[in-house]
Amino acid sequence: MRAVTKISLCLMPVIMLAGMGDLSAYEMKKQKAYSIGVRASYFPMPYRSTQVHASHPDCRVSFETEGFGGNFYFTSRISRNWLLEVTAGGIVSVRGVSEGDCWDDCCCGCEDHECSDIDVESITPLLVGLRYQLTSLGRHSNLQPYVSAGAGPYWISRVQTVTEPFEEEVTTSAQAKRGAYAGAGFDCAVAGWLGFNVDVKYHFVDLDASDRYSDFEFGVGVQIMWGSY
């Protein structure tokens, strides 16, 4: 049910844009050769949810976020239905605790000093793939559905910063994993050169659906199109 809700929220802007009307017959006959765009995206990082908790009188604040970020993408048409797509971006998730007094053994019993424990986790993929436009379904509409697939490296990094009175400890880790994705989406043209994009991908990190980072990514963005094919 949670996944269905997320997909519905992502597709809502496309459904609204679909009602804006068809482009002119002249514009529909012109297939753009290139596009470049930017998306805002959501990725459910493992074992995290978006929440904030605050308590008094110790002024303790704890928070965590799921994965939010964005990416840039470029497409180049190689045939009537096929496009090459290149995507680069990043997803960041933050978890932290901050307290005016001490908790557990963080501050070694020293009060009136702020303690904090901040954990930042990120995923940075660089992906190359193919996109197939389902022209027969969207030929007479400004709404153009597609399916896509590709592969590339995923850089996963983590930085943890623990601050105690008169001391700060920073721990970092990073690793690169191979991976692949499969997805679907819509391009919605609102002018001959401008359009919106909604995109859903499933990432197979380490080529393993059971990997802790393998999951859906939901993106909504805007793109500029130019050139004729």
Give your account of this protein's structure:
With 229 residues, this protein is mainly β. The protein has one domain (2-228): Porin. The protein has helices at residues 2-18, 25-29, 135-138; strands spanning 32-43, 51-55, 60-64, 67-77, 82-99, 115-133, 143-164, 167-189, 194-205, 215-228. The chain has an 8-stranded antiparallel barrel. Strand 8 and strand 9 (194-205) form a beta hairpin. It is elongated, with a radius of gyration of 22 Å. Residues 1-7, 13-26 and 102-110 have low confidence and may be disordered.
Write a short abstract of this structure:
By secondary structure, this protein is mainly β. It has 3 helices and 10 strands. The longest helix is centred in the N-terminal third of the chain and has 17 residues.
List strands and helices in order, with pairings:
Elements: H1 2-18, H2 25-29, E1 32-43, E2 51-55, E3 60-64, E4 67-77, E5 82-99, E6 115-133, H3 135-138, E7 143-164, E8 167-189, E9 194-205, E10 215-228
Antiparallel strand pairs: 1-4, 1-10, 2-3, 3-5, 4-5, 5-6, 6-7, 7-8, 8-9, 9-10
